[in-house]
Amino acid sequence: MTRPFHRRKALMTAASLAGLSALPGCAGARSRRHDLDADVRHLPVIRARNDRIDRITVCLRPFRAAGPRLEVEQVGRKSVVHNYGHGGSGWSLSWGTAKLAVERAAISPGQKIGVIGCGAIGLTTAIVAQQAGAQVTIYAQETPPFVRSARASGSWTPSSRIVKTSNLTPEFAARWEQMARYSFSCYQNLQGLPGNPIEWDTFYGLKSRDARPTPPDPIGFAELGDRIRDIEPQGNRVPVHDARLPYCEVLKQPNLIFNVTTYADYLMRQFFERGGKIRTMTLHHPSELTALPDPVFINCTGYGARALWNDESIIPVRGQIAWLIPQPEALFSMEYENVYVVSRRDGIVVQWQGEDMGHGYNRTDETPNVDEARRGVSIINGLYKSMGYNV
Ligand SMILES: Cc1cc2nc3c(=O)[nH]c(=O)nc-3n(C[C@H](O)[C@H](O)[C@H](O)COP(=O)(O)OP(=O)(O)OC[C@H]3O[C@@H](n4cnc5c(N)ncnc54)[C@H](O)[C@@H]3O)c2cc1C
């Protein structure tokens, strides 16, 4: 029963430690006390220390300059609908791209469908195919938690490394918008489930006082976010006047989070409850599909499509995460000096994003880089140290 009091006391201590009493909304507390966004005193504390890193993971984003491949191809007498190449947006766009792929598969009730791949795209595609009446078998080399999707930051990023500006067509932009809007609506229906696979947290974008101008993006990834501004909560920018703090502005906004461990488990259970089957196998050539019983396949092999389909249009974009021990008392996300942090229920993502957007582009190395992991953690450690915390 005493917990609320202690928590409040702890937060007040955090505020005074951080010297935030000079913030707008604190000094003029009487007139501003209902402006929740002006109050950034409640920045939770992440215990960013190297000895709290419990693993380092690396994932390759399957990027295609022209955007994901959603085409139908014949392999002998089998129809294959491709559904791969979702860059840094696979979880975010999964339901929308699944819907488009299943429409292209023109499923009739009771029809057998093979889905190749069991990551973010394969699992959602399999469930959408089941919803359309298909009997689905997933064929995959790996299942969660061993798929690349399991190593994602786990937030709503539908426009991350999805297409190059030079390849952007009005048709693709419209298709992307359709995928993003449909996925977003699905995620709103998945909140409040046991284990919270999907939930909103608060994102704090801390603008450093020493921030250098953002270097130009050397790759030319397109930014499509403006097309769906009406469905995304925008939040507020809060100026910070206390010169003792290392940041001068905070963007505070709601952030949609995927707790990937629980979410993948939820998707697997949904798939099995609808009668789905999984066969663990590695395909070495598309012609091997002719030996499988299903007449129609949906190919959701992500980066694996590069080798399997000999598709060199897939460019790997390497991304690494240092995972800190979870802190359920501090669930939120933030960005500071190019380090993205998502404190999820299943682990705290600390991702140093490199000097510019080209970081990781065309890099196939999936070996963890310990120095890079520690660099991100030490930047966040330094942030809290400058606020008076010994984390
Ligand atoms: C560091 C990082 C952070 C990210 N953060 C986010 C985020 O916050 N939000 C977001 O939306 N996206 C994020 N992404 C992007 C996201 O992870 C990818 O878009 C997503 O993983 C792609 O999913 P997929 O299902 O296509 O591929 P995968 O997860 O790689 O799944 C491919 C499946 O195909 C199978 N397969 C492949 N080849 C074969 C074969 N030859 N035979 C049989 N089976 C095969 C695999 O075993 C696996 O089951 C992030 C990526 C990185 C690297």
UniProtKB/TrEMBL annotation:
Name the UniProt record assigns to this protein: D-amino-acid oxidase
Enzyme class: oxidoreductase
Highest rank taxon of the organism: Bacteria
Pfam families in the record: DAO
GO terms under cellular component: cytoplasm
Entry-linked InterPro entries: D-amino_acid_oxidase_CS (IPR006181), DAO (IPR023209), FAD-dep_OxRdtase (IPR006076), TAT_signal (IPR006311)
Stretches assigned to the FAD dependent oxidoreductase domain: 113-372
Keywords for this protein: FAD, Flavoprotein, Oxidoreductase
Molecular function terms from GO: D-amino-acid oxidase activity; FAD binding
Keyword Cell membrane: no
One GO BP annotation of this record: D-amino acid catabolic process
Family, similarity comment: Belongs to the DAMOX/DASOX family.
Enzyme Commission numbers on file: 1.4.3.3
Cofactor(s) required for function per UniProt: FAD
The reaction(s) this protein catalyses: a D-alpha-amino acid + O2 + H2O = a 2-oxocarboxylate + H2O2 + NH4(+)
